[in-house]
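User: Predict the structure for this protein chain, please.
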Amino acid sequence: MNLSEEKRKELEKKHNIKLPDKDIILEGGINAHLKQAINHEHHVKPMKEIKKELGLKDADIATMFGYANANSYRTSKAKEKMQKGLELFYHLATHRQF
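Assistant: Here is the predicted structure, written as structure tokens:
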């Protein structure tokens, strides 16, 4: 990691997170990990549960992706694809071994 120890601790405290002491390398790369997650969808947490756990609303997701409002996001043709991507991203982010 290219952060100084002081900067790393400052970021951890500011964002209430724990940064790893060293770089994380996924065996087989990110694509292999994503393929594994896709092939085991029953292990991937559904978007409804992710939103509940993180306290997210459709309006929050709409803002993140540049939609005018929650209804625009809800009626988007891309909504299902975006939710699947967010589910896989969440899975990847929460199942890394540090």
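The two ends are 13 Å apart (CA to CA).
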